[in-house]
Amino acid sequence: MVKAEGVRKRFGRLEVLKGISLEVEPGEVMCLLGPSGSGKSTFLRCINHLERINAGLLSVDGELVGYRPVGDKLHELRESEIARKRAEIGMVFQHFNLFPHMTALENVTCAPMRVKKLPREQTRRRACELLDRVGLADKHDAYPTQLSGGQQQRVAIARALAMEPKLMLFDEPTSALDPELVGEVLGVMKQLGGEGMTMIVVTHEIGFAREVANTVVFMDAGVVVESGAPADVLGSPRHERTREFLSKVL
Amino acid sequence: MSSTEVTSGAGRPDDIRAVPVRRPGRWIAAAIVLVIAAAVVRSVATNPRFEWSVVGNFLFDARILHGLVVTLELTVIAMAIGIALGVILAVMRLSPNPLVSSASSFYIWFFRGTPVLVQLLFWYNIAALYPKIALGIPFGPAFVHADANTLITSFVAAILGLGLNEGAYMAEIVRAGIISVEEGQVDAAQSLGMTRLQTMRRIVLPQAMRVIIPPTGNETISMLKTSSLASVIVVTELLRAAESIYDVNYKTIQLLIVASVWYAACTSVLYVGQYYLERYYGRGASRELPPTALQRLRMLSLRSPRSGGV
Questions:
Q1: What's the CA dihedral at A201, A204, A207, A209 to 10 degrees?
Q2: Looking at residues A132-148, what average pLDDT do you find?
Q3: Contacts of A91 in chain B (CB under 8 A)
Q4: Which tens digit of pLDDT belongs to each residue from A144-174?
Q5: Which of A158, A222, B86, B102 has a 20 to 30 Å separation from B269 between CA atoms?
Q6: Within chain B, which residues score under 50 in pLDDT?
């Protein structure tokens, strides 16, 4: 589903990604772990072209992200083409980024109506189902400020799911939440993974990674230090750096 | 026994009734304000030279009312041009294309850098620079020709002068609004597959409105009064109408009061309109919307009997 080969990303002189290579199979749940500043979030943002990569190859579903190969050259995609590809990838952010001027329901119906141009009634019905599914059946008309962090993040997940994505990206979805509220969001994500959604999750929730992930990738300073099944990486890490990190967060 | 009393009190604890601190300063300040206010009112009411009956007679004079309509037209049209131009200039200024953004910066610099009165006179005398105005392809053939003096009447000159000048100020207000919206909002909109235009229209601008509305209300109120400058280029708006009457009857002060009363009245109406606009665009910004005037009245009438009962 996602394939990265030697992906590099620079911000000015600072190289944040120093050659990331990894592969995500359809239906797989991959957790990216690592200290802050290791490039996890940047890599996630590259996958839907919110950041442009400087070198390497990055493809989703066999198609390059942001470029089209013509002969041996790469052509930049038009904005509308990039938008169309982004519409197939759902993303959930650390700070929820719900649209504050819209109710929970409007947040969820907005993109299907404006981007996919689906009829109002249909999107409404689907949005209601999704909000019910994330346990917010009674919050359809609430504005984001009237919701708790956990509720907001569940609306954000419903909003992403409303576009029926083939891939979901989670950028530290529980890091801004009170400890009490983390569980309700992880519960929804766990359910989603169980239903066969392909997911890449940047997280510090080791418990979630152990329980839900098929693959755990540990990143540090812009490189993949080690990756593998959660039992291996979390249970018996091979690298000193991984051991050091895990001993601090566990 | 006493313990039961305590528990019954704990259900709804008694309000504290302490002797309030004396604040003699407040009483003195209030007295001074009242005395000054009374003196002003007395002087205005009893000074026969104000000739309030004259003010009353001219308040609804047909010429004054016509002038008022022209003032309102000027305000509405010039603000409409200003707002439309402001949005365009603001988006241009934030454009990644350096030529586009510097064109916008130049426009803003130019129109903020010269007095609006000078700009009005400039447009009024535009025929001296361009006697003929033509519409067509740049450097190519023209489709429509017009004589500048017939096309740019004093009313049109006033609209152009006020509107184009306003555009420069509105551009900065709109830009401030746009950059006040969190970057995460754009990320979220784009990750859902919205194009830049959709993101701007559906997500960024509606949120920017909350920041844009208050200074825009301010600009509109200011425009209502700045439009009186058009009297200089013989547009018969409210002030010019008043002037043309006192030029004949020499009741200068009375007619200026008439004009002022109308300006103040219109400003008050705009003030109310702004409150409701802010309320509309404030939805979602705080947990509860601020009450409308009616709701406030209702709350007051509900509260007073309760507080009387305590």
A1: 30
A2: 93
A3: 187-188, 191
A4: 999 999 999 999 999 999 999 999 999 999 9
A5: B86
A6: 1-10, 304-310
Q: A25: left (phi > 0), else alpha (psi -120 to 50), else beta?
A: beta
Contacts of A161 in chain B (CB under 8 A): none
Q: For residue A113, what pLDDT band results from cuts at 50, 70 and 90?
A: very high
pLDDT at residue number B114: 94
- State ipTM: 0.91
The partner residue sitting opposite A79, judged by closest CB among B192, B196, B285, is B196
Chain A residues inside the 8 Å CB shell of B282:
none
B52 belongs to a structural domain: no
- Cβ contacts of B280 on chain A, cutoff 8 Å: none
Does residue B277 sit within a domain? no
**Which chain B residue shows the shortest CA-CA distance from A50?**
B187
From B204's Cα to the closest Cα of chain A, the distance in A is 9
Question: Hey, are the CB atoms on B191 and A102 less than 8 Å from each other?
Answer: no
Listed in order, strand segments (DSSP E) in chain A are: 2-11, 14-24, 29-33, 55-60, 63-64, 67-70, 73-76, 89-92, 167-171, 198-202, 215-220, 223-228
Residue count of chain A, please give it: 250
Query: What is the model's pLDDT at position B286?
Result: 66
Residue B274 lies in a domain: no
Token pair of B58, please? Answer: 């001219």
CATH assignment at residue B206: 1.10.3720.10
- B207 contacts A145? CB cut-off 8 A: no
Please tell me the predicted confidence (pLDDT) of residue B300.
66
Give me the number of domains chain B comprises.
1
* Structural domain range at position B96: 71-235
Tokens describing residue A19:
């050659």
- Per the DSSP assignment, residues forming a β-bridge with A171 are A202
Find the CB nearest B193 among A87, A100, A101: A87
Q: Does residue B95 sit within a domain? A: yes
